[in-house]
Amino acid sequence: MTLTLLYRLVIAIGVGLLIGLQRQRAIGHLAGIRTFPLVSVLGVFSGALIPTAGGWVAGAALLGLAAFAFKAYPQGVPAQQAGYGITTEVTLLVAFVLGVAISTDLILEAVVAGGAVALLLHWKTPLHAFADRLGPEDFEALMRLSLLALVILPVLPNRAYGPYQVLNPFSIWVMVVLIVGISLGGYVAFRLFGSRRGAVVAGILGGFISSTATSVGYARRSKETPERSRAAALVIVLASTVVFARVFLEILVVAPEILPGVGIPLAMMMGVMTLISFATYSLGAGGGRAELQDQQPPSDLRSALLFGLLYAVVLFLVAWAEDQGGAQGLYLVAALSGLTDMDAITLSSAQLMKSGSMAVDTGWRVIMVGGLANLGFKGCVVALLGHPAAAKRVGAAFALSVLGGVAILFFWP
């Protein structure tokens, strides 16, 4: 027992030193590299006394620490000091609670939380800059995501409906939240990087936000400014490559257990497109600059509802085609749904593979067919809306990609 307690004390001191070092370098007042380890030790001993003395010991210690911290700060730091706030006081309380958690077998959770706390404190300047950079429409997007995830999702029934028992309102809306979250994450990254970056960054971020919208936007831009056709082509090809990284992310979240079966052929397809993207870059398209000014926050309720409806329809059609036993029907559904959206066919196939309703070797081929159809659709969009120079480059890149995908479909065992 003594060795176990000593082990936990060492961990608590380490967590306290990490947080205290950050506070010492940031402010140098009230609490720093010595105080935070002491508070963590207090938390460990308070937690260790809970089984014998009761929880009131830890509660009383926490209240006493809070009273001391909020009284001591105005005395130790001038009120006019820049950045005055209660961050350090709150962090002291967190350090105490982490010590209690370490004493109650939540060691891994406490260590992870301590590291996260140190990072949040260290990233004060970029986080504040990001918050200041958010406009009203960006804040509205975050609130809409909160509406989707925290208000609508919890009240939906978590049971299956329909003849194939695949239409679960709760599960469908989870997929909606996932896709909106990924797209919004790409948009947030764009806001962090700024509106003007090289074509490589524009293509990567555009792929995570929406590769179809990115293709349409840059096709039009190449028509308006023909001298940027090469950069626009690179952005479109890169965005389409990132789609397969997005597919991996979706499968990792929804059904990680199927990754060993679907990962290699899809990774090969992404590798093919990565090589083609590198070739496009090497042919002189990488030096141009690109702007993502026409991107909008991707979390409006109407788009979410439309995606939820599309996902439900695709999920039902894929289940129906699988029940009929015809591979041609599955691939037709994949091709039609993949024309404008890869997410629905990816998520529906992943769900069916996870439940065992679809074979893994069939599932990755269905996703691949959807991806190839998506490339064909975007190639047609660029040909119709873009400058001939951009259309030529994108067409050549997509043709090679489709050939590579078809080869994987036919020759992979």
Order of the strands making up the biggest sheet: 1-2
What is the N-to-C order of secondary-structure elements (H for helix, E for strand)? Answer: HHHHHHHHHEHHHEHHHHH
Q: How many H/I helical runs?
A: 17
Mean pLDDT: 83
Architecture overview:
The protein is mainly alpha-helical and 413 residues long. It has helices at 2-26, 35-48, 50-53, 56-76, 87-103, 107-122, 124-133, 136-155, 169-193, 199-224, 229-254, 259-285, 301-324, 327-338, 343-355, 360-385, 388-411; strands at 196-198, 289-291. The protein contains 17 helices and 2 strands. A two-stranded antiparallel sheet has the order 1-2. The relative contact order is 0.09.
Features:
single chain; 17 helices
Give a quick rundown of the structure.
By secondary structure, the chain is mostly helical. The protein has helices at 2-26, 35-48, 50-53, 56-76, 87-103, 107-122, 124-133, 136-155, 169-193, 199-224, 229-254, 259-285, 301-324, 327-338, 343-355, 360-385, 388-411; strands at 196-198, 289-291. The chain is globular, with a radius of gyration of 27 Å.
